[in-house]
Amino acid sequence: MMKLLSYVVLAHRLHFTQAAEELAIAQPALSQQIQALEREIGVRLFERSSRSIRLTSAGQGLLVHAERVLADVDTLVMDK
Questions:
Q1: 3-state helix, strand, coil in the chain (%, to 5)
Q2: What is the distance, to the nearest Å, from the Cα of residue 54 to the centroid of all Cα atoms in its chain?
Q3: Are 9 and 22 in contact (CB under 8 A)?
Q4: Which candidate, 3, 55, 63, 68, has a CA 20 to 30 Å from the CA of 74?
Q5: Can you tell me where the transmembrane regions are (predicted)?
Q6: What is the count of structural domains for the chain?
């Protein structure tokens, strides 16, 4: 679940350092989580350069679904 949350935060921030700060983790750990998620689902979610990051079309497509999953989990936890 943490990888999915990390992906969503990074997708909104489009900045590794800012996303890592929001998640209260180190930037290398965030990078590793994103790389692991990309390996698990078999697609690149972000296009990276030395100065910028942007969502790929697959990354854009996943974002709505990932946000829904996280919202559903929040709902389930609050209903307990």
A1: 70, 10, 20
A2: 12
A3: yes
A4: 55
A5: none
A6: 1
List, for residues 17-62, the tens digit of each pLDDT value.
Answer: 999 999 999 999 999 999 999 999 999 999 999 889 999 999 999 9
CATH number of the domain to which 13 belongs? 1.10.10.10
Residue 1 has what DSSP assignment?
-
Boundaries of domain holding 50: 2-78
Give the side-chain half-sphere CA count within 13 A for 47: 6
The greatest distance separating any two alpha carbons of the chain, rounded to the nearest whole angstrom, comes to: 44
Query: Cβ contacts of residue 55 below 8 Å, gap of 6+?
Result: 11, 14, 45, 46, 47, 63
Q: Which two tokens stand for residue 70?
A: 């996280």
Please report the pLDDT score of residue 58 as a whole number: 97
